[in-house]
Write a structure and sequence with these properties.
Carbamate kinase, nine-stranded mixed beta sheet, two-stranded antiparallel sheet, 8 helices, about 35% helix, globular
Length: about 240
C-alpha cells in the first residue's frame, strides 16, 4: 500500500464550504460530507488539524467597510469561526472521530484554550484538532491563522481547500482563457499577486519553507488524493 505523502496536515477551509446550497449559515449535510472525507484521511494514519473561516455567518472586513469598527467586526468574525468549528466537530464525532476544538479566544465552557503542546498531543493521539477564533487578534485573516498554527504544530503542509482546481492565471469562473499553474514558488505568488492566500500568510510560509497545496474541495475524494500526493491541484513550494 502506498504511504501518504504527508503525515501531519493542516486543512484550511473557508466558512463558505459549509453553506451547501444555502445563502447563509451551515448545511448539516455538507458538514457531514466534509467530515466523512476527513475521517477517511485520518484512517490512513494522517494527523489532521483544521482552520475554518467564518464567512458563511459573519465577515468582519465586509462589516468594517460598512462603517463598523474594524476591531469589533473582526472579533465578531472570529466568534463565527468558533461556531463553524463546533458544527464540524459535531459532524466528525457523529461519524466516530474524536475531536478537540481549540480557540484563540478563551471560552472554556465550549472549547479548550489554544496551547501548542496540548494541540500536538491531541494530534499524536489521533484526534482531529480544529483551531478556532483565528489568531485571537483583529486585522489578521484565517489564512494567516492557518499559516501560524501549521508552523506551531510542525505540519508538513497546508492544504487550502477551494472551489477551483488550483491556482490559475486569472479567475477561471469569469475568464475562459485562464490556465492552471501546477507548481510555483511562494515568491512568485507574492510577485504576481495571485489570489491564493493573503500576503502575510504566504510570507510566513515562505520564511519557514512550508509548502501549500491548493485543490478543489467540491470534488469528492480530493482530500484523500491531496494527502496521498496525487497531482490534483497546485503546489506552492520554496
Amino acid at each position: 500500500m502506498v504511504a501518504p505523502a504527508y503525515q501531519r496536515v493542516l486543512l484550511k477551509l473557508s466558512g463558505e464550504a459549509l453553506l451547501g446550497g444555502r445563502a447563509y449559515g451551515i448545511d448539516p449535510v455538507i458538514a457531514e460530507q466534509i467530515a466523512g472525507e476527513l475521517i477517511e484521511v485520518r484512517d490512513l494514519g494522517v494527523e489532521v488539524a483544521i482552520v475554518i473561516g467564518g464567512g458563511n455567518i459573519f465577515r468582519g472586513l465586509a462589516a468594517s467597510a460598512k462603517g463598523m469598527d474594524r476591531t469589533t467586526a473582526d472579533n465578531m468574525g472570529m466568534l463565527a469561526t468558533v461556531m463553524n468549528a463546533l458544527a464540524l466537530s459535531d459532524a466528525l464525532e457523529r461519524l466516530g472521530a474524536v475531536t478537540r476544538v481549540l480557540t484563540a479566544i478563551e471560552m472554556r465552557t465550549v472549547a479548550e484554550p489554544f496551547i501548542r503542546r496540548r494541540a500536538i498531543r491531541h494530534l499524536e493521539k489521533g484526534r482531529v484538532v480544529l483551531f478556532a477564533a483565528g489568531t485571537g487578534n483583529p486585522y489578521f485573516t484565517t489564512d494567516t491563522a492557518a499559516a501560524l498554527r501549521a508552523m506551531e504544530i510542525r505540519a508538513d503542509v497546508i492544504m487550502k481547500a477551494t472551489k477551483v482546481d488550483g491556482i490559475f492565471t486569472a479567475d477561471p469562473e469569469t475568464d475562459p482563457s485562464a490556465t492552471r499553474l501546477d507548481s510555483l514558488s511562494h515568491l512568485e505568488v507574492l510577485e504576481r499577486r495571485l489570489n491564493v492566500m493573503d500576503a502575510t500568510a504566504i510570507s510566513l510560509c515562505m520564511d519557514n519553507k512550508l509548502p501549500i497545496v491548493i485543490f478543489n474541495m467540491t470534488t469528492q475524494g480530493n482530500v484523500r488524493r491531496a494527502v496521498m500526493g496525487e497531482p490534483i491541484g497546485s503546489v506552492v513550494t520554496v
